[in-house]
Amino acid sequence: GESVGLHLPTLSVQEGDNSIINCAYSNSASDYFIWYKQESGKGPQFIIDIRSNMDKRQGQRVTVLLNKTVKHLSLQIAATQPGDSAVYFCAELKNSNSGYALNFGKGTSLLVTP
Amino acid sequence: DSGVTQTPKHLITATGQRVTLRCSPRSGDLSVYWYQQSLDQGLQFLIQYYNGEERAKGNILERFSAQQFPDLHSELNLSSLELGDSALYFCASSQRGTTNEKLFFGSGTQLSVL
């Protein structure tokens, strides 16, 4: 079936290093992807999005890369800070029973150590 | 703060009972989405409303129902509750409810069914 999945359930990085969180998707027709960050006790927070007509998009300290050939999405966080510790979700726009909805992966837990 | 308000924050109830979760979208947003988050299933899309009308439906159980009122707030009704319904329920909103639009999430309602 069509799904969004994450390669690693947990990722530990040192403060100041760059982080890379990966995501695979299987629906080649998906044309919109979003990364969300969820801190403990809070709802998912939008980080960055990308459309399928783009390969790369940059935000503040974050970059999303989209490789449609291998159906792979990644989130790069530059100079990771303790405040970046959270669970990161990728989501793809998916055709549901009626209409479109964002389909979320299971999430990757990022732990930033001093 | 995303601007999406969910009440209550916590809800503890017994099997077989019925509960109502409430959501107020961001000011100006016309569309509301409901998601269920559990440890084993991740974030699952339940249903979307736009300006009072159902727009998209995910794997929402028949025991669950939702509606969006003229003032745009939404309620998710869960009935005949089972232990497996214990989860975090998130509401999100967006401006137009169209594809390729980011969602803003509330802080969620933690439902515990005992």
Summarize the structure.
Chain A has 114 residues and is mostly beta strands. Chain A has strands at residues 4-6, 10-14, 19-25, 32-38, 45-51, 56-58, 62-67, 72-77, 86-95, 100-104, 108-113.
Please outline the helices and strands.
The complex is a heterodimer of chains A (114) and B (114).
Chain A lengths: L3 E3 L3 E5 L4 E7 L6 E7 L6 E7 L4 E3 L3 E6 L4 E6 L8 E10 L4 E5 L3 E6 L1
Parallel strand pairs in A: 2-11
Antiparallel strand pairs in A: 1-3, 3-8, 4-5, 4-9, 6-7, 7-8, 9-10, 9-11
Chain B lengths: L4 E3 L2 E4 L5 E6 L6 E8 L3 E9 L2 E5 L6 E5 L5 E5 L8 E8 L9 E2 L3 E5 L1
Parallel strand pairs in B: 2-11
Antiparallel strand pairs in B: 1-3, 3-8, 4-5, 4-9, 5-6, 7-8, 9-10, 9-11
The shape of chain B, in one word, is globular
Query: Structural class of the secondary elements of chain B?
Result: mainly beta
Number of β-strand runs of chain A: 11
Order of helices and strands of chain A: EEEEEEEEEEE
> Helix/strand/pairing class of chain A, anyone?
mainly beta
Estimate percent helicity of chain A: under 10%
Low-confidence stretches of chain A: none
Give an overview in words:
The complex is a heterodimer of chains A (114) and B (114). Chain A has 114 residues and is mainly β. Chain A contains no helices and eleven strands. Chain A has strands at 4-6, 10-14, 19-25, 32-38, 45-51, 56-58, 62-67, 72-77, 86-95, 100-104, 108-113. In chain A, strands 2, 4, 5, 9, 10 and 11 form a six-stranded mixed beta sheet that branches. A five-stranded antiparallel beta sheet of chain A has the order 1-3-8-7-6, with no helix packed on it. Chain A is globular. Chain A starts with a strand and ends with a strand. The model of chain A has no long low-confidence stretch (mean pLDDT 88). Chain B has strands at 5-7, 10-13, 19-24, 31-38, 42-50, 53-57, 64-68, 74-78, 87-94, 104-105, 109-113. Chain B has 114 residues and is mainly beta. In chain B, the strands form two sheets. In chain B, strands 2, 4, 5, 6, 9, 10 and 11 form a seven-stranded mixed beta sheet that branches. In chain B, a hairpin with a 3-residue loop joins strand 4 and strand 5 (42-50). The model of chain B has no long low-confidence stretch (mean pLDDT 94). Classes of the chains: A mainly beta (114), B mainly beta (114).
